[in-house]
Amino acid sequence: MKLLFKTLKYFFVFILIAIVGLTALYWKSDIPLSTLKEKYTTADSKFIEVDGMSVHYRIEGLATDSIPLVLLHGTGASLHTWDGWVNALKTERKIIRLDLPAYGLTGPNPTSDYSQEFYATFINDFLTKLGVKQCIIAGNSLGGSIAWNFAVKYPEKISKMILVDAGGYTMKSKSVPIAFRVAGWPVVKNLFKYVTPRSIVQKSVENVYADKSKVSDDLVDRYFELSLREGNRQAFIDRMSEFRNKGIINDKTAKIKDLAMPTLIIWGDKDLLIPLEVGEKFHADLPNDTLVVFKNLGHTPMEEDAEKTVAVVKEFLKK
User: Fold this and answer.
1) 249 vs 108, 156, 252, 256, CA distance in Å?
2) For residues 214 and 216, what is the distance between their CA atoms, to the nearest angstrom?
3) Residue of 31, 23, 79 lying closest to 228 (CA atoms)
4) Where is the AB hydrolase-1 domain (predicted)?
């Protein structure tokens, strides 16, 4: 018995030393917002106060376009995920993109509410402040879920909709990015606010790409550094908890069938996070839609292959 207690004592001491060592090795302090602004804003970047937040956004393209294209990014991303589409479309359209609450330079919601109801209301408040009465709305993943929830709540404000590997229906992922999993682990998720290895971010980005070779160091650096904006790690944990604990509360998927605006659905056939079956479900339920599936692309096809995916967007916008 004494030998057993002695063995257990050494085991727990070893675990404690390992935790302390890993914490010291991977401890990451927040990056000051001023530092991130210097690197991740451009001449087109602006900030506007909405619902208690200083929201980072950009308006690019044709200033005379009365119905802008509004782009909403996914979990863990930022407005930069749309760079390829914006470069291809800005000579033809007015484009508005933003860092959603919890992400990018915008940072956390002071109320810690990250429900779909909050995001839909927030987008309406944001567009109202910009004087936008009607738009074409597009979203990837979380952004796609926000887009159709916004459409359900404010259908008169949307002329067309684009869903890119959008969230919404109950489903089972084939593979989940490690950052998503860590943010849900008891105890460990609290350490995640301070101990954030860059390798976790890299593996998470690689998880949503079909072609891992396209995940560059610069791309990982952007995701990693923006995750270190003050408050973003806690917001990430809060949003994942919101999704796990309240994801089915106030579920409005039954109302998707009522959305009459023309809709383009884009999906990567190698999406392991939100599988193609979900895209097919949107296709079955939306009364006025087109589904385009891209071979050998993952969960963020607009980022992984902007040129190929934006070509179908251009055709859709012309109709």
Assistant:
1) 22, 25, 9, 16
2) 6
3) 31
4) 68-305
**Burial profile 6-33: b = 16 or more Cβ within 10 angstroms, e = fewer:** eeeeeeeeeeeeeeeeeeeeeebebbee
**Structure confidence by residue, pLDDT tens digits, 59-108:** 999 988 889 999 999 999 999 999 999 999 999 999 999 999 999 999 99
Least confident of 10-24, 38-52, 245-259, 270-284: 10-24
Q: Please state the separation of Cα 70 from the chain's center in Å.
A: 14
Q: Which two tokens stand for residue 9?
A: 């004592």
Q: Mind listing the domains of the chain with CATH numbers?
A: 33-318 (3.40.50.1820)
The 10s digit of each residue's pLDDT in 11-57 is 444 343 433 444 444 546 899 999 999 999 999 999 999 999 999 99
The packing angle between helices 116-130 and 142-153, to 10°, is 70
